[in-house]
Write a structure and sequence with these properties.
The structure is a single chain. By secondary structure, the chain is an alpha/beta fold. The protein folds into three domains: 59 residues, OB fold (Dihydrolipoamide Acetyltransferase, E2P), CATH 2.40.50; 141 residues, P-loop containing nucleotide triphosphate hydrolases (Rossmann fold, 3-Layer(aba) Sandwich); 63 residues, Probable gtpase engc, domain 3 (Ribonucleotide Reductase Protein R1, domain 1), CATH 1.10.40. It has eight helices and 13 strands. A five-stranded mixed β-barrel has the order 1-2-3-5-4. A two-stranded antiparallel sheet has the order 10-11. Helix 2 crosses helix 7. The longest helix is centred in the middle third of the chain and has 17 residues. The protein is globular and about 70 Å long.
Length: 296
């Protein structure tokens, strides 16, 4: 029996990368597999190479996770691509994505692309947001897909993993994917009128690159709502920096309770006001005393 990875799943098409031969075959699931479970890109499978073109899938290994959009299993890392300029950063959108990936046990890293477009003031803005997310506990990488700066650092970080590129439309995910893998992909441009990208990705495909690494492209999102994936009272558990503190009450919502260590940390600038505001917005709570905690 051979072990492989489903690297392409679109309609009835299944393609399996077999590790021993380092070749890709058309995947043909046995009848019992068809009836038992859906097959996703990212599934580790075992089976038999029957000829030069076909691989019979006998079984599917237990999954670590399954993402809904894109439909990929066993994802280790989400490379969330953002930009300071073209389009401008929407940190609330980013914070929602971070919560969602934390919830499904996928390690997020943040990649700021298009750094070659930034002037001095915009570079200061880039460094400010970098500090916000590094202090929250995330890896942050600066990249120019145009020049290739930062691409090797991404490769090193995700070596041997299944990862996806995610983020809003227009930030250059397809350009980064091309730089990482060498694959020639159709690249959408940012619409000047709308200030957002036209999504160009179709299907669910994982591309092998580096040393045992596989990467897929997620669709461009126009919005993400963490409450579609996480219960309101659990969102606080997916803000990493909140977990460093112990409040007076174990079920503290970090809003109006006395003895809240998280609010004190925000007042002391140990937790950024931007992140705390995103949290309140997610749980749909507005504090009158917010101006005292985060004076503008």
């Amino acid at each position: 029996m051979e072990r492989g990875l489903v690297v392409d799943r679109e309609a009835q098409l299944i393609e399996v990368y077999v590790f021993r031969s380092k070749r890709t075959y058309r995947g043909i699931p046995r009848g019992k597999i068809k009836k038992k479970t859906k097959i996703y890109a990212g599934d580790y499978v075992v089976g038999e190479v029957v000829d030069d073109s076909n691989f019979v899938i006998e079984d599917i290994e237990e999954r670590k996770n399954v993402l809904i959009r894109p439909s990929i299993a066993n994802v280790d890392t989400a490379i969330i691509v953002e930009t300071i300029k073209e389009p401008e950063l929407n940190n609330f959108f980013l914070d929602n994505l971070l919560v969602v990936y934390e919830r499904v046990n996928v390690e997020p890293i943040i990649v700021f692309n298009k750094i070659d477009l930034l002037g001095e003031e915009e570079k200061d803005e880039l460094n400010r947001w970098t500090d916000v997310y590094k202090n929250a506990g995330y890896e942050v990488i600066h990249v120019s897909a145009k020049s290739g700066e930062g691409i090797e650092k991404i490769k090193e970080f995700v070596r041997g993993q299944i990862c996806i590129l995610a983020g809003p439309s227009g930030v250059g995910k397809s350009s980064i994917l091309s730089k990482l893998t060498g694959a020639k992909l159709k690249i959408g441009e940012v619409s000047e009128k709308l200030g957002r990208g036209r999504h160009t990705t179709t299907g669910v495909r994982l591309i092998p690159f580096g040393e045992g690494s596989f990467i897929g492209d997620a669709p461009g999102f126009s919005r993400v709502n963490a409450l579609d994936f996480v219960k309101k009272d659990e969102i606080k558990n997916y803000f990493r920096e909140f977990l460093r503190y112990r409040c007076k009450y174990p079920d503290c919502s970090h809003t109006r309770e006395p003895g809240c260590s998280v609010k004190e940390a925000v007042k002391k600038s140990e937790i950024s006001c931007e992140r705390y505001k995103s949290y309140l917005k997610m749980i749909r709570v507005f504090l009158e005393e917010l101006k005292e905690i985060c004076p503008d």
